[in-house]
Design goal:
It catalyses: 2 GTP = 3',3'-c-di-GMP + 2 diphosphate. The structure is a single chain. The protein has 564 residues and is α+β, with helices and mostly antiparallel strands. The N terminus and C terminus are likely disordered. The strands form four sheets. Strands 1, 2, 3, 4, 5, 8, 9 and 14 form an eight-stranded mixed sheet that branches. It has a five-stranded antiparallel sheet with strand order 11-10-15-13-12, sandwiched between helices. The protein has a five-stranded mixed sheet with strand order 17-18-16-19-20, sandwiched between helices. Among the domains are: 141 residues, 2-Layer Sandwich (Beta-Lactamase), CATH 3.30.450; 159 residues, Alpha-Beta Plaits (2-Layer Sandwich). It is rod-shaped, with a radius of gyration of 56 Å.
């Protein structure tokens, strides 16, 4: 009697398990594996691209901010000391030798010599519109101005003389400086067209006795200074601005925004109205940056006139009365970057990273598809190898390994559910004679015929299994038996069908040995040994018959009674 090796239970799915419906859930299909893998990797890629895009956009935004800050600092440098030489000129002219002799003797002829020096100074500087000499009552004694051709024109007292509008400036002490608000030139009570930005600086004329005898006034053409500030914004994305201390624009990106304190129709063109949050910050600190819905602002508070003399400035907005306190002239320089420039700057990385993302997603899709195809092919090969390792190549049935694994699982299941099953060993009678006389092809046909008979008699609802466990030896598991007679009926039918085959006058029959679980034994090795012994008894008794390992339990006898 041959012995059988006992195999440990396996939880992996076998070819037989798949055929009988007892295996684990099938693995993901290639399509679902592709979708899950691609979704995960594409999500990671998209997150990385978004982070790169955000970093790039932030970098460009910081560059624009830095450009605005550098621009406003450049404007501040342009304004430094630009009015110092005007102060020097007005002080020099107030101490003119001819003027002092005129104050001492009142010689009117000296006015022409004074005027000629004014004209020379006007012609030399190129930045003055007028130089005027006023007496103690504010009346003009000498005026030199540029005509339409840019030639100095001299006007002496009594011939078209005008009166100084800010009489409070006549109260200045020696070496004190008066500076007006930066506004537009007014001629004959009307604003000159085209606009001429003017800044007026004055200092008192003091005679030898220390008395205030009048003023020397220089009208500084501030338009060129504004043009230089405007040039700062050329070639970079910033828009330079200059705002007076009341929030009115002296320089702005749009001409309609300027000079709101002098033009009634532009009265609302001021920082407090257009950009209130920026103005609040400007009033709080001397320099800073503010980001609004309109864009980014960088600002500095500047003092364009810094001299060692007391400076009295006119009120902001073009007021006519001089400040009584010593108060420096103050403006605000600003650099503005519109929001549209930030959006335009962000467009380039958006397009580039977007196209790169699409390309990478396409490459990723191809790579994942290739990986999944490789995995699926490898899995199919492994499954094929596993199937071949557990399947008989000739009959397509479970081989001995798969049959014993399934028998072990069946013992566990039957014990768990308190059920009975039969392990049957079937050996063919007369097979060797056909194989020897008719050849191996005929023998193979016999084996396939027997396999078809066995498979055809399996009860699919009970999980029965047939397998080839030797050369002409087959195994059969009959699960969930209500009683031994059910097994006998199935096996007798199988025996008759096998015996009915005709092989050119030769016949094959089956000797079948049966061991019942748990009636005969509770372990696989014992069941095989008992079934094998029963099969040999069937052969000894005349072959072509079914033989049970022990006496079948009587009706009503518990199935769990073990064989003694």
């Amino acid at each position: 009697m041959r012995t059988f090796a006992q195999h440990s239970p396996r939880t992996s799915e076998s070819a037989t398990d798949r055929a009988d419906g007892d295996g684990e859930r099938a693995p993901l299909s290639a399509r679902w594996l592709f979708l899950l893998t691609y979704a995960l990797l594409a999500g990671v890629l998209v997150v990385l691209l978004v982070l790169v895009w955000q970093w790039q956009v932030d970098s460009l935004s910081r560059e624009l901010d830095a450009t605005a800050i550098a621009s406003v600092e450049e404007q501040e440098r342009l304004l430094e000391n630009k009015l110092d030489y005007v102060v020097s000129d007005v002080l020099t002219l107030s101490r003119q030798n001819e003027l002092q002799r005129y104050l001492e003797g009142g010689d009117e002829a000296l006015l022409d010599r004074i005027a000629r020096e004014y004209a020379a100074r006007l012609r030399y500087s190129g930045l003055y519109q007028q130089i005027r000499l006023l007496d103690a009552r504010g009346r003009e004694r000498v005026r030199v101005e540029l005509d339409a051709e840019g030639t100095p024109r001299i006007i002496i007292a009594g011939r078209g003389a005008e009166t100084w509008f800010d009489t409070a400036a006549l109260a200045l002490n020696a070496n004190e400086i008066y500076v007006s608000a930066l506004d537009l030139d007014v001629a004959e009570g009307r604003i000159a067209r085209p606009f001429v930005p003017i800044l007026r600086l004055a200092t008192p004329v003091i005679d030898a006795a220390g008395r205030n005898r009048g003023l020397v006034v220089i009208h500084y053409l501030a338009g060129r200074l504004l043009e230089r500030l405007e040039d700062v914004g050329r070639g970079n994305p910033t828009q330079p601005m200059l705002v007076n201390c009341e929030g009115y624009w002296l320089l702005a990106p749009e001409a309609e925004m300027r000079w709101g304190f002098m033009l009634p129709e532009r009265a609302r063109q001021r920082m407090q109205v257009r950009f209130p949050r920026v103005w609040q910050e400007m009033a709080r600190v001397d320099r800073g940056e503010v980001r609004t819905a309109a864009g980014f602002f960088a600002f500095h508070r500047v003092e364009p006139l810094r001299v060692d003399y007391p400076v009295h400035s006119a009120p902001c907005g073009g007021g006519a009365t001089m400040s009584e306190a010593v108060l420096p002239l103050q403006w605000y320089t600003l650099a503005f970057v519109p929001r549209a420039l930030y959006e335009r700057a962000a467009m380039t990385p958006t397009v580039v990273i977007g196209l790169l993302g699409l390309l990478l997603l396409g490459v990723l899709a191809a790579a994942v598809q290739a990986m999944v195809a490789l995995y699926d092919n490898r899995r199919a090969q492994l499954l094929q190898l596993e199937r071949m390792a557990r399947t008989d190549a000739l009959t397509g049935m479970a081989n001995r390994i798969a049959f014993e694994e399934r028998a072990t699982l069946e013992i566990e299941r039957a014990a768990r559910h308190r059920r009975c099953f039969a392990l049957c060993v079937i050996d063919l009678d007369g097979f060797k004679a056909i194989n020897d006389t008719q050849g191996h092809l005929a023998g193979d046909a016999v084996l396939r015929f027997v396999a078809e008979v066995l498979v055809g008699q399996l009860r699919t609802t009970s999980g029965d299994l047939a397998g080839r466990i030797g050369g002409d030896e087959f195994g059969l598991l009959l699960s969930e038996l209500p009683d031994p007679e059910t097994a006998r009926a199935i096996l007798e039918d199988i025996r008759r069908r096998i015996a009915a085959g005709d092989w050119e006058g030769q016949r094959v029959s089956a000797s079948i040995g049966v061991a019942l679980y748990p009636h005969d034994a509770g372990h696989l090795t014992e069941l095989f040994q008992l079934a094998d012994a029963a099969m040999y008894r069937a052969k000894s008794a005349g072959k072509d018959r079914v033989m049970f390992a022990g006496a079948p339990p009587r009706a009503g006898q518990p199935e769990t009674q073990a064989r003694t």
